[in-house]
Design the sequence.
C-alpha cells in the first residue's frame, strides 16, 4: 500500500514540476516541491523511507531535466535521510523549526547541485546564490510552512499519531 | 506541536545509512557507469511517467485554447489588421525569394554541384518546461523509440530552438538556445564570420569569438554554420542587437536576440540527420518531416 502511495506521490510530483510549476514561478524561480515532500516523508516515516523516496524521486525528476542525475538523487535522498534523522531527535516540530530546517536543506541541496552541475563561466557562485539558491530556498520554506499547516492543523496528524501509538 | 511518531526502527536507520553511503560511494567511484545504468533503466520509467505528463499537458493546452479563443480576444481586430499587412509584405518578399531560389538552382546546376540531401526531421510537441531553476529546457513528447538521440538539433520554422540533452523511450529534454550552458556554432550571414553562440543568464544569446577585423553590425542575422553536428548550415539563430568590443581583447562579441521565442514554443522539429546523411531525401524540395500519430 505504501509503495503505491509513494509511486503516486512521485508521479504527481514529476507532473507538477514539468507542467504546472513553470506557470506558478515567482520571478522565474520555482520552488522544489519534491525536496519539501521528501523532507516531510523523512520526518513522518523515518530515514529509510525518506531516503528511498528521495532517491527514486531524484531519479525520476532527473529523467525530465537537463540536470545531473547523481546530484539530483543524492540531494533528494540525502534530504529525506537527514529529515528522518532530525525527526527522530525531536519530540515536537514547531513551524519555525520546520521552515528554518527546510531553508537550510534547500540551500545545502542548491550548493551540492551547483558543485555538481559544472555551470558556465557566466554563472558564478554569487550570481547562483542570489538568483537561484536563496530565492528557491525561501520559496521551499514557504511551501513547507503551508504543508505544515495543512498536515498538522487540517489533517490532525497529532491525533493520527496518538491513535497509532495506542 | 507534537511530532508524529510512526517512524522506522533502529535497524531501518542503520540500513538507510548503509544505502545512502553506498549510493554516495557509487557515484564517487563509478559516476559514468552508474549514470549510464540509471539512464538506461529510466527509459521504461520515463515512458510510464510520460502518460500523466502528457495528460496534464493536454488538459493545460485545452484550458489555454479556451482562454485564447474566447476570453482573451481584446485587440484581436488590431492584430488581424496588422497581420494582414504583414502577409502582404511577406508575399512580396516571397516572390523575390522564389526568384532568387530559382536563380540559385540554375547556377548550382551550371556549376555541377552535387545535390545536397536535406535533413530528416521528426515533429514533436512540447509537453513540459524546465523542471528546475538551473537549466532552461523544454520536454518533448518523442523519445528514443522515435529515433531521437542526445545532441540532435531542435528547430521550428522560425529557427533554432536548442539541442537534445536527454532522452527516454517516450520523452526527450531540450536544452534551449538561451541557456548559458548551450553552445552552437554560428555564422554571421552578411560577413561570413564564424563564432560560437552561447545563451546568457538574461535569456538571450551571445555570439563569441568574432574576429576583430569583422565589420559586424546591429541587425545582422546569425545562422548555424553547420561545422559542429546537430544542425545543418543556414538555420536562423537570431539577430545581432549589440556589439561588444573590449580594448585589448583578441575577439569581439555580440548580443543576439534569438529568432524563436523559446518561452512560447509549442511544436518543434528534431533534426535526425544533417545534410548528406540521408539518401532517401536527396533531390526533394523540402525537408522530409516524419510525423507520428
Sequence:
Amino acid at each position: 500500500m505504501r509503495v503505491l502511495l509513494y509511486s503516486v506521490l512521485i508521479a504527481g510530483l514529476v507532473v507538477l514540476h514539468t507542467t504546472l510549476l513553470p506557470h506558478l514561478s515567482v520571478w522565474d524561480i520555482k520552488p522544489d516541491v519534491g525536496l519539501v515532500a521528501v523532507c516531510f516523508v523523512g520526518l513522518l516515516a523515518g530515514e529509510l523511507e525518506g531516503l528511498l523516496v528521495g532517491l527514486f524521486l531524484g531519479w525520476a525528476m532527473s529523467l525530465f531535466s537537463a540536470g545531473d542525475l547523481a546530484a539530483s538523487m543524492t540531494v533528494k535522498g540525502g534530504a529525506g535521510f537527514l529529515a528522518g534523522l532530525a525527526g527522530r531527535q525531536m519530540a515536537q516540530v514547531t513551524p519555525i523549526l520546520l521552515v528554518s530546517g527546510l531553508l537550510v536543506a534547500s540551500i545545502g541541496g542548491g550548493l551540492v547541485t551547483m558543485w555538481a552541475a559544472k555551470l558556465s563561466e557566466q554563472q558564478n557562485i554569487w550570481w547562483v546564490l542570489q538568483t537561484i539558491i536563496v530565492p528557491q530556498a525561501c520559496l521551499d520554506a514557504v511551501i513547507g510552512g503551508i504543508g505544515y499547516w495543512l498536515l498538522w492543523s487540517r489533517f490532525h496528524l497529532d491525533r493520527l499519531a496518538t491513535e497509532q501509538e495506542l | 506541536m507534537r511530532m508524529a511518531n510512526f517512524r522506522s526502527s533502529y535497524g531501518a536507520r542503520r540500513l538507510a545509512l548503509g544505502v545512502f553511503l553506498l549510493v554516495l560511494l557509487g557515484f564517487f567511484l563509478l559516476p559514468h557507469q552508474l549514470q549510464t545504468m540509471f539512464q538506461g533503466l529510466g527509459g521504461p520509467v520515463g515512458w510510464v511517467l510520460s502518460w500523466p505528463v502528457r495528460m496534464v499537458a493536454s488538459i493545460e493546452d485545452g484550458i489555454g485554447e479556451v482562454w485564447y479563443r474566447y476570453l482573451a480576444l481584446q485587440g484581436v481586430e488590431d492584430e488581424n489588421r496588422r497581420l494582414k499587412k504583414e502577409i502582404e509584405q511577406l508575399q512580396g518578399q516571397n516572390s523575390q525569394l522564389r526568384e532568387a531560389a530559382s536563380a540559385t538552382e540554375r547556377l548550382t546546376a551550371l556549376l555541377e554541384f552535387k545535390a545536397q540531401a536535406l535533413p530528416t526531421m521528426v515533429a514533436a510537441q512540447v509537453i513540459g518546461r524546465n523542471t528546475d531553476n538551473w537549466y532552461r529546457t523544454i520536454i518533448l513528447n518523442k523519445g528514443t523509440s522515435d529515433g531521437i538521440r542526445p545532441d540532435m538539433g531542435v528547430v521550428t520554422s522560425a529557427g533554432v530552438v536548442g539541442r537534445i540533452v536527454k532522452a527516454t523511450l517516450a520523452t526527450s529534454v531540450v536544452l534551449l538556445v538561451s541557456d548559458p550552458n548551450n553552445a552552437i556554432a554560428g555564422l554571421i550571414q552578411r560577413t561570413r564570420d564564424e563564432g560560437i553562440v552561447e545563451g546568457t543568464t538574461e535569456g538571450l544569446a551571445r555570439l563569441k569569438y568574432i574576429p576583430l577585423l569583422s565589420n559586424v553590425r546591429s541587425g545582422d542575422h546569425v545562422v548555424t554554420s553547420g561545422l559542429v553536428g546537430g544542425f545543418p548550415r543556414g538555420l536562423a539563430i537570431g539577430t545581432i542587437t549589440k556589439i561588444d568590443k573590449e580594448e585589448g581583447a583578441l575577439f569581439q562579441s555580440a548580443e543576439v536576440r534569438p529568432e524563436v521565442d523559446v518561452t512560447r514554443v509549442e511544436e518543434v522539429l528534431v533534426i535526425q540527420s544533417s545534410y548528406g546523411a540521408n539518401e532517401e531525401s536527396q533531390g526533394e524540395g523540402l525537408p522530409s518531416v516524419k510525423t507520428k500519430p
Q: What stands out?
A: Chain B touches chain A through 56 residues (CB under 8 Å).
